[in-house]
What we know:
single chain; 75 residues; alpha+beta
Amino acid sequence: MKCDLCGGKVLSELTDYTIFYERRWIIVEHVPANVCQQCGEKLFAPETVEQLQKIIWEHRKPIKKIETPVYEFAS
Length: 75
């Protein structure tokens, strides 16, 4: 399979899905996706997207929490 964006090779693998939702970052680990080995574009099956939405909208208890630094970009 080839990437629609760059023409690179696409492989099925597990990846992380990250979204900023309701003023917080959410990370879902080990999500099945087709990932371009050249540009990194991730393609998710419709049923995977539905499951991701369910996880996020239901506000499930996370398996862990991480702390991350935040910086302001000043010109």
